[in-house]
Specification:
Belongs to the MCTP family. Keywords: Calcium, Membrane, Metal-binding, Repeat, Transmembrane, Transmembrane helix. By secondary structure, the protein is mainly beta. The protein has two domains: about 5-125, Immunoglobulin-like; about 130-210, Immunoglobulin-like, CATH 2.60.40.150. Helices cover about 5% and strands about 40% of the residues. The protein has helices spanning about 105-110, 110-115, 120-125, and strands spanning about 5-10, 15-20, 45-50, 55-65, 75-80, 95-100, 130-140, 150-160, 160-165, 175-185, 190-200, 205-210. The strands form four sheets. Strands 2-1-3-4 form a four-stranded antiparallel sheet, with no helix packed on it. Strands 9-8-11-12 form a four-stranded antiparallel sheet, with no helix packed on it. The N and C termini lie far apart (about 50 Å).
């Protein structure tokens, strides 16, 4: 049959986030982004899946992630096997997440146990502390000029950080579906620059707009 699944994220028994319901689907795609505040890393994040019913919700399995396994400022894909000790099913399916860990402003001074747990990257050891993460999800383009004749790509710039999307085939409505993580420095006034470029066969590149 079908189900109407939704997901709850729990820490220390408390529900921190509940996803939308995807109706009549055993292969749901949520495509939701959530930021969960955590005080210490010595705990597990629990992901619990339920089937929404008019009167109640049926449990469809759970999985957990040890927060100490996450890397600072690096997004990793986790494919987690759902389990339910009370179910007779051998295969409860899987849930797929992209997880990353970032430090909030002020946490370095205030929360030494949190800091000790982090594998500090080079940029954190310098005085130049970034204190946040800007995640940009590049979805799609619409009615791109001359998109049918040339390949279109996007350039994202924040301060001295640059990302380039994968070059796209010739389309006026390109679909990228790519995610980029930028360091954020609260003491800088960096603007996010978004540039649209086209590339023709002669390796010639032209800026179409910003």
């Amino acid at each position: 049959g079908t189900s109407d699944p939704y997901v709850k994220f729990k820490l220390n028994g408390k529900t921190l986030y509940k996803s939308k319901v995807v109706y009549k689907n055993l292969n749901p795609v949520w495509d939701e982004t959530v930021v969960l505040p955590i005080q210490t890393l010595d705990q597990n994040l629990w992901i619990k899946v339920y089937d929404r019913d008019l009167t109640s919700s049926d449990f469809m399995g759970s999985a957990s992630v040890a927060l100490t396994e996450l890397e600072l400022n690096r997004t990793t894909e986790q494919v987690l096997k759902l389990e339910d000790p009370n179910s007779l099913e051998d295969d409860m399916g899987v849930i797929v997440l992209n997880l990353s860990l970032a430090v909030k402003q002020g946490d370095f001074k205030r929360n030494s146990s949190f800091t000790r747990n982090l594998r500090l990257s080079e940029s954190l050891r310098k005085n130049q502390l970034w204190n946040g993460l800007v995640t940009i999800t590049l979805l799609e383009g619409k009615n791109m000029p001359r998109g049918g004749l040339a390949e279109i790509f996007i350039l994202l710039k924040l301060g001295d950080q640059r990302y380039k999307s994968k070059t796209l085939c010739k389309s006026a409505n390109p679909q990228w579906r790519e995610q980029f993580d930028f360091h954020y420095f609260s003491d800088r006034r960096d603007m996010l620059d978004i540039e649209v470029w086209r590339k023709d066969n002669k390796k010639h590149e032209e800026l179409l707009g910003t």
